[in-house]
Amino acid sequence: MNSNIILVVLGEPNSTFSEILFKYLISSNFKKNKKKLILIGSKKLLKEQMKVLKYNISINEVLDIKKATKKFVNIINVEYKFRKPFSKITTGSSQYIEKCFNLALKLIKKNSIKFLVNGPVSKKHFLKKKFPGITEYIGSKFNSKNQVMLIYNKYLSVSPLSTHIPIKDVVKFVKKERIIKNIIKINEFYKIKLKKIPKIAILGLNPHCESIHKISEEEKEIIPAIKFLKKKKIYVQGPLSADTFFLEKNIRNFDVVIGMYHDQVLTPIKTLFKFKAINVTIGLPFVKVTPDHGPNYEMIGQNRSDPKSILYAFDFLNKIK
Fold it and tell me: What residue spans of 147-298 are helical by DSSP H?
């Protein structure tokens, strides 16, 4: 597989992604970049956004990825009609975003490219409730099911068993088989990509891992999954109570925390590491990374966004093969 290229889908044009991308491209981190960086999106829009944000970065337009070079920022142009460099997010950009993703995924399949970074998209306007998130959207393009969301930091990562779903539906996802499949994928990812055998903590669903019902989810689903994983020689512990788990004395003993729902683990990880974390999708034929922030409507075009997550994303991809 081609591990010398990172494709970057620019995503929602009316977001802060171009801003944090510019901040990466003028940083010392980019100068240390070991892989060819190829952007997928509108060159004209990117140039106009540079003017607004007062950046001056050379963009090398290529028609063939073989013409890309490590010395420059390469872009494969996708036409996009716009009136202003930054506007309110609407469904008007949906076709453009779709074209960008389709082109990137076509290049991945044709050239066996291993790494994809995508800018944020609006779940409301682009995904239109057809998919919980961009992870599931891309998975559908490859007929790939059961992708795993890993919010990665080298000191501690978290993974929610269910992603962007209503809290009332969470219990439907707390199943033995799902817990086992997700943890096996995470364990393999750490072993193969990060050369590390991870220590994995599994949180309970109910407060204090207890329930007023006769049989709790911990007893019915979580504990049997843990017993099975231990037989497979995977290092897991749990179920652990979520309300006290993220104390320093606890988290220093683990590499990954499996939560039963999105905010159970994403709230503490963002409190601990703020923007120094990235969203890694496991279970695709390639590694997909998303900087851990959304379109950030409130700060579009203001040049005030924190770029730590995108710096962390590219540094991460430059270290793995």
Answer: 176-193, 217, 223-231, 242-245, 248-251, 262-273
Kindly give, in sequence order, each residue whose CB lies less than 8 Å from that of residue 153, ignoring residues fewer than 6 positions away: 269, 272, 273, 276, 277, 278, 312
Residues pairing with 9 in the sheet: 40, 118
CA distance 318 to 321: 8
In Å, how far from its chain's centre is CA 196? 20
Q: Are 86 and 16 in contact (CB under 8 A)?
A: no
Structure token pair of residue 276 = 């120094």
Q: 239: cis peptide before it, omega within 30°?
A: yes
The token duo for 282 is 């496991």
Any idea what the Cα angle at residue 163 is, between residues 162 and 169, rounded to 5°?
55
SS3 279: strand
How buried is 45 (Cβ within 10 angstroms: 0-12 exposed, 13-18 middle, 19+ buried)? Answer: buried
Range 306-310 average pLDDT: 87
- CATH architecture group of domain 150-278: 3-Layer(aba) Sandwich (3.40)
Tens digit of pLDDT for each residue in 92-127?
A: 889 999 999 999 999 999 999 999 999 888 878 888
Helix (H, G, I), strand (E, B) or coil at 316: helix
182-197: pLDDT as tens digits = 999 999 999 999 999 9
CATH number belonging to domain 1-144+284-321? 3.40.718.10
Residue 89, helix vs strand vs coil: coil
